[in-house]
Amino acid sequence: MRHLLSTAELAYDDALRILDTAEEMAAVTSREVKKLPTLRGRTVVNLFYEDSTRTRVSFEAAAKRLSADVVNFSAKGSSVSKGESLKDTVQTLDAMGADAIVIRHSAAGSAAQLAASDWSEAAVVNAGDGTHEHPTQALLDALTLRRDWAAAHGQDSPRGTDLAGMKVLIVGDILHSRVARSNLWLLRTLGAEVHFAAPATLLPQGVEQWPATGHYSLDDALAAAPDAVMLLRVQAERMGGAFFPTAAEYTRRWGLTDERLSVVEKLTLGETGKPAVILHPGPMNRGVEISAAAADSPQTRITEQVANGVAVRMAVLHLLLSQSHQEESHS
Amino acid sequence: MTTSYLITGAKPYGEPAQDLLIRDGVIADIGQNLQADDAEVIDGTGLIALPGMVDLHTHLREPGREDAETVETGSRAAAKGGFTAVHAMANSSPVADTAGVVEQVYRLGVEAGWTEVYPVGAVTRGLAGESLAELGAMAESAAAVRMFSDDGHCVTNAQLMRRALEYVKTIDGFIAQHAQDTDLTAWGTDNAAQMNEGSVSATLGLPGWPSVAEEAIIARDVLLADYVGAKLHICHVSTAGSVEILRWAKARGIQVTAEVTPHHLMLTDELVATYNPVYKVNPPLRTEADTQALREALAEGTIDVIGTDHAPHPEQAKECEWAQAAMGMTGLETALNAVQHAMVETGLINWRRFAEITSTRPAEIYGHQHQGQEIAAGQSANIILIDPAASKTITPEQHASKGRNSPFRGIELPGEVRYTFLAGQPVLAQAELTQPVTERTGA
């Protein structure tokens, strides 16, 4: 694995290696001294063309816990706002000795283009490209789900296990969601079954060819007894009436309301009797896609997701950079 | 300077070999064992003689974007590609919406002398889709414009489209529509369509350009053309559904003609998965089922002609994020190769049908008298000699066009244009450009 660009192209073994490594990293982050020397002397650049404080801080924390030097390059207030091309920016960063470039960009495919180009030798990590993919988000979701799934099934450790037999329901704006896309492919790779619930306007044309089951009704989707429910954030710009009439109507039909929470409370992780889990990639619109009670329910794993994000990103950076380091020293 | 050429043993339309005597700009004689002591002899053994290709859809970029292409470089590309006439779309800067601009483009074409250049006039002022450009003034200008198009933009307003169709009847012209519903493609917004809408766009997360956005405009416009009794040409048809509508319209006797690009016959949206902007084009690359429907429609005549939509762009317009990249591909110097590959070698058409779709029909649609003629004694010597047995790996750096944005880069394709005769002069010989015809006075 030279880059992490998408989960669609992530092999089962690589996915499991990242998740297992992330478990080790998570153990480190629970120690008093939360730091490993693995990436000392190496430089990780966070190249962010979109504002995303959460994701950037998570990658920054991950790189620093591995002792890497971190450079944050934000498109705003930089030469990019003066019209510098992606190519020139990347070549500049490459000349400064970037070993890994973590790129967040509004344009789908920008991470793949960067990896395919000869602009830089750095390992490329896709931190979200347009409405295409956000692979580390899916990996942290999988890490979160796997812990509950393994524990419910009596495993001492989730290491080496996958999500075979799990049924995950993703609710909301599938059309514009890189999180939904990355989760679909990774969950399928790990053996889970994926369901979507959304209005037809927020499901992409061609979705019927995806390996997933679609529902227009959230109530029908919940009746299919998912093991996990993942709510997607409703973006403000979708609320203007173009995709659904009003936020209130969205909440009535596709929100995890208090009434629907009482349904989710009865759902279990397979036949284990352990409660099903609720995920949200954040930031939440309380009262729109998720009620306050649902957000604060003991079934939600939202803070675990954030903590697991750091562990997953540590694992990804560690695997990409320490591997390439070994290859170089062997050659 | 020699003005007579004796081509020996070439096969007109791939049929039995003949000798061709070219003298004073016309085919003076055709037959077996011709003799002409004053003529330069060209061995045509193994070559196919065809009428020079006529492209109804070319972007020459001048005036305004001379960094992308000029009339001179685009004309050279045309000669190398086997085109003896090209029609330069109006989306230059300034837009070709006045007699002054179309005359400038026409004059630049005559001065270049590598091919005949016919400017296309804009339908609406500034391509803005709001009010008619001075169609009559362009028709009466030295450029004698007959074809009007806002290509690159759709004439979206139905009332304006109706008026344009009616108005060109009075000047013996026709409208070439770029069929694209602007609302269905979110044109001009941050979420503008980027590629064919379907299973590939769903996975890639790029905003989709639905086939219905093309089909809805074609359906509307064939009804309008029928209603007002005017001539309509549909640019770059790209979907199977569009073919169905055209088939219906032609059966009904509506005066509609249609073109398809070589790239839509060969390439599909699967290529977009590379996110390489060389594959970004408007209308977008569609599905395998669409390419098959387009090939069949072209073979049977529902689609009339090949139009290259040659759209050169400078490197920086393609070496960037997909969403920011310019739309368009070069096409003049790969048209023969792509069409031979997609249509001839598949057995869908023979070389006579090839001549119809690349020369005879486009010349008829425009109304040219001296282009697209039968290869026969007395006809204008706008002809090409091609080697169908040749094969080459497409290398854009070898192209005469300034554009390097060929989607066929690195692909091995059949065929080679060996000679291009423009008004009896070989502007291309042995596949190399020679010298232009500069004394031409025009049509």
UniProtKB/TrEMBL annotation, chain A:
SUPFAM superfamilies noted in UniProt: Aspartate/ornithine carbamoyltransferase
GO biological process: 'de novo' pyrimidine nucleobase biosynthetic process; 'de novo' UMP biosynthetic process; amino acid metabolic process
UniProt superkingdom: Bacteria
Task of the protein: Catalyzes the condensation of carbamoyl phosphate and aspartate to form carbamoyl aspartate and inorganic phosphate, the committed step in the de novo pyrimidine nucleotide biosynthesis pathway.
Domain Aspartate/ornithine carbamoyltransferase Asp/Orn-binding, first and last residues per copy: 165-319
Enzyme Commission identifier(s): 2.1.3.2
NCBIfam families reported for this sequence: asp_carb_tr, PRK00856.1
Organism per entry: Nesterenkonia sedimenti
A GO MF term: aspartate carbamoyltransferase activity
Residues that, per the record, bind carbamoyl phosphate: 54-55, 104, 134, 137, 282-283
Pathway(s) this gene product operates in, as recorded in its UniProt entry: Pyrimidine metabolism; UMP biosynthesis via de novo pathway; (S)-dihydroorotate from bicarbonate: step 2/3
Gene: pyrB
UniProt-recorded name of the protein: Aspartate carbamoyltransferase
Pfam families recorded: OTCace (PF00185), OTCace_N (PF02729)
Sequence similarity: Belongs to the aspartate/ornithine carbamoyltransferase superfamily. ATCase family.
Record flagged with keyword Transferase: yes
Residues binding L-aspartate, per UniProt: 82, 178, 233
A GO cellular-component term linked to this record: cytosol
Domain Aspartate/ornithine carbamoyltransferase carbamoyl-P binding residues, every copy: 2-146
Catalyzed chemical reaction(s): carbamoyl phosphate + L-aspartate = N-carbamoyl-L-aspartate + phosphate + H(+)
From TrEMBL, chain B:
Enzyme class: hydrolase
Residues covered by the Dihydroorotase catalytic domain: 48-240
Binding site for substrate: 59-61, 91, 282, 313
Gene3D superfamilies: Metal-dependent hydrolases (3.20.20.140), Urease, subunit C, domain 1 (2.30.40.10)
GO BP annotations, alphabetical order: 'de novo' UMP biosynthetic process; purine nucleobase catabolic process
Residues the entry annotates as binding Zn(2+) 1: 57, 59, 151, 309
EC number in record: 3.5.2.3
Record-linked Pfam families: DHOase
Catalytic activity: (S)-dihydroorotate + H2O = N-carbamoyl-L-aspartate + H(+)
Bound cofactor: record note: Binds 2 Zn(2+) ions per subunit.
Binding site residues for Zn(2+) 2: 151, 178, 236
Top-level taxon in the UniProt lineage: Bacteria
Active site as annotated: 309
Gene Ontology cellular component terms for the protein in this record: cytoplasm
Keyword Zinc recorded: yes
PROSITE patterns linked: DIHYDROOROTASE_2
Cofactor section: Zn(2+)
GO MF terms, alphabetically ordered: allantoinase activity; dihydroorotase activity; zinc ion binding
Keywords in alphabetical order: Hydrolase, Metal-binding, Pyrimidine biosynthesis, Zinc
Similarity comment: family membership: Belongs to the metallo-dependent hydrolases superfamily. DHOase family. Class I DHOase subfamily.
Known function: Catalyzes the reversible cyclization of carbamoyl aspartate to dihydroorotate.
Designated name of the protein: Dihydroorotase
Organism annotation: Nesterenkonia sedimenti
Origin organism lineage: Bacteria, Bacillati, Actinomycetota, Actinomycetes, Micrococcales
